[in-house]
Automatic annotation (TrEMBL):
Protein name from the UniProt record: F-box domain-containing protein
Cross-referenced PROSITE patterns: FBOX
Coiled-coil residues: 23-50
Keywords per UniProt: Coiled coil
Organism superkingdom: Eukaryota
Length: 226
């Protein structure tokens, strides 16, 4: 056939009829092949879905058989406390690094345990210039940490003094100033302005053990703080 094409050959009469039949038979075979390909693709997709389901079931079975489920709640709580202390960063992307929330998402048993332990919610850090939705998490941590003392770091890296979001965080934190224990506040400007409402209202800080104020990454040792 290739030589006929190269020679410019054109069939007539019965030979033309033979080529027409050959063309029809070829199309039938093509249709049969395509139908088989479609069937195999459906079968392949079905097998892939079945494999994914089996893998998910395998992970669930491994989870059920995990020795960690045999641990008593008090020991499990101690492990959680170690994992969560000073590691809850309420900033960043749509998936912030918040171990307390991550642990509570594993299973109902863990969620109940995490929700019943205020200490797991009592330490958190906020870096104003870096997080996207921190203020949504702050009330949650302040509420669930009650009545434990709270330890937190607030770093305001905005270039303008007194950013509106930082003021909101401070306002929320001031409502719980009686629970402040270890507090670190850093700002591009002198951070005393952040505490003016606290100073003005003469708030009591019965739980406070340390207060660090700093500009940028430099600690301020002699801050005028009554």
């Amino acid at each position: 056939n290739l030589s006929c094409v190269r020679a410019g050959y054109y069939p007539f009469g019965s030979e033309r009829a033979a080529y027409d039949k050959l063309l029809g038979d070829t199309q039938i075979e093509l249709d049969r092949c395509q139908k088989e390909i479609d069937r195999l693709e459906i079968l392949c997709n079905t097998l892939i879905a079945s494999k994914q389901l089996l893998q998910a079931n395998k992970r669930l079975i491994h989870s059920i058989l995990s020795p960690i489920h045999k641990l008593p709640l008090d020991l499990l709580g101690n492990i959680f406390e170690h994992l969560c202390y000073d590691r809850n960063y309420l900033y960043g992307s749509s998936l912030p690094n918040v171990p307390t929330l991550n642990l509570s998402s594993v299973c109902h048993r863990w969620r109940s345990l995490v929700s019943s332990m205020p200490i797991l919610w009592s330490t958190f850090n906020m870096i104003e210039k870096e997080f996207a939705r921190p203020h949504n998490l702050l009330p949650l941590f302040l509420g669930r940490s009650h009545p434990c003392p709270i330890d937190f770091q607030l770093h305001d890296r905005n270039e303008c003094e007194g950013s509106s979001r930082t003021s909101k965080y401070i306002s929320s934190l001031l409502l719980h100033s009686d629970r402040w224990r270890h507090v670190e506040i850093r700002s591009q400007f002198l951070p005393v302005y952040l505490l003016q409402p606290l100073i003005k209202n003469g708030a009591q800080l019965p739980s406070l053990k340390s207060l660090t104020l700093g500009m940028g990454d430099d600690e301020i040792d002699d801050t005028d703080f009554p």
